[in-house]
Amino acid sequence: MISSRILSRQSRRMLQIGVGHFVFSALEGFVIPVLRVPPLGLAVHRLSALQGVMMLALGLSWPRLRLGPVASRTAFWTYTYSSVATLVPYVLAALWGAGNTTIPLAAGTARGTSRQEAVIKVVLYSAAPSFFVSAALILWGLRMSDEDAAE
Question: How buried is 1 (Cβ within 10 angstroms: 0-12 exposed, 13-18 middle, 19+ buried)?
């Protein structure tokens, strides 16, 4: 019972975060032309919208996960961190006019200082392990229950 209450609360939070991504995406769309690297601004716009869709989809399916309290918290926080840690470096790169060393397809020739490029790289690369942890837990949580298998 406690686990379902936790999953329900996390589901609601994911839905709120997803809507927040949409609002951010919409507002960020207005500033794309004035960013130092407009193509990166467009990448931020699209990425935030995609993350909003992912958060909404996960939020809607979250209560169906078969995870205990620790596993659900771990999956929730690692996915949330991964989402933010993926978006923030793109935002910073668009603001700084940087990112060529880590996200060259979006940044083009925009290259920042060594420190800026390092910040972008460290934060962006930190998103991957947390994403894989959350994806594994979510996949595990979506396994069939005994009742589902019997039907």
Answer: exposed
